[in-house]
Amino acid sequence: MDSWVVALRSFLVLAEELHFARAAQRLHISPPSLSQQISRLETRVGRRLLVRSPRRVELTDAGRELRPLAASVVTAVDAVAHWSSGAPGDRPLRVGIVASGAGPLTGRILAEVAEAQPALGLELVHLGFFDVPAALGDGRVDVALAIAPVAVGPGLTSTALVHEPRVLVVRDDHPLAQRVSVGISETDDLDFVVPRSAEGDALAWWLVDPRPSGRSPRISARADGVEGLMELCAAGLGVNIATRSAATQFARPGLAYVDIADIEPATVELVTTAVPRHAAVPLFAAVAQEVARLGR
C-alpha cells in the first residue's frame, strides 16, 4: 500500500489513542516505527500535527484539521480496494447488533454504508449481550455495535461511538411509571430482571452494585434477550435498566421508560477484530464514527 495512505492510517489511530505505545500495538508495529511514520507525514504536509511530551500526545490545530480529511482518504482507498478485488457473489459484511445497537443511529449507519458501496451486501446478526467477543472470534460477525462494558481481549479493538443515558423500565402501573426521572437509590427495594448470561463486573455495572447505600439489588428473573426482559417487566416480575433508545427501539404497550438521573450513561462501542476479516470493515468503521460524530 502507498506509504502516504499507510501514514494517514497510522495518524488516525494515533489521533484516536493519543498514546504512541497503544496506537503502535493496534497497528502491529513498534512505537519507533510509528514515530518515524508520523515524522515523515509531518514533513510531507509541511505542518506539525502533534505536540509530544513524555506523558501525553496532543493534536495541534493542523492535526485536528487533517483528521477528517485523512479519514475520508483512507475510507475511499479501502472502498476502492474492496471494489477492485471483489467479485459478484462476494459474501456480505456481517454486522452484529447487541440490543438496539447504536440506537437511532444504527439505521443511518447502515444506510450510509450501503450508499457508499451499493454492491456491498449487509447481513445483520442479533447477538446476546455478552456474545460479542466470541462472535467476532469465530467469524459469525465481522463488526459489532455493542454496549459497554465489552470484554475486549487480544485480537479485538473497540471504539466508543456515543453515550446513551440509562433508563428504568417498569410496568406502566408501577408507582414510578409517571415520573420524569428517578434516582438510583429509589430503586434499592425493587426486584430486577437481567440477561441470563449476565454476571461479574458487567452485571454489577448495569445494576449499580453496590448502591450508594451499600446494598445490592435483588434479581428476580432472567431472560435471554431484550424482548424477554421487556416481557418480564410487562408482567410485573421486575424492573430493568436499559439504554434510553430502548424506549423507541423496543417500545411496547404496558411499559414505561423513566430516566435515571444520577448514574453514568452507557457507551455504544464499535468492536472489530484487530485485523479485519472483511474488506468493508474500515468503511463501516469510518461511516459509523462520522455518523456518531455528527449525531445524525
TrEMBL record:
InterPro entries: LysR_HTH_N, LysR_subst-bd, WH-like_DNA-bd_sf, WH_DNA-bd_sf. GO terms for cellular component: protein-DNA complex. It comes from the Bacteria. Residues 8-60 form the HTH lysR-type domain. Gene3D superfamilies: Periplasmic binding protein-like II, Winged helix-like DNA-binding domain superfamily/Winged helix DNA-binding domain. Keywords: DNA-binding, Transcription, Transcription regulation. GO terms for molecular function: DNA binding; DNA-binding transcription factor activity. Belongs to the LysR transcriptional regulatory family. This is Hca operon transcriptional activator HcaR. It comes from Microbacterium lemovicicum.
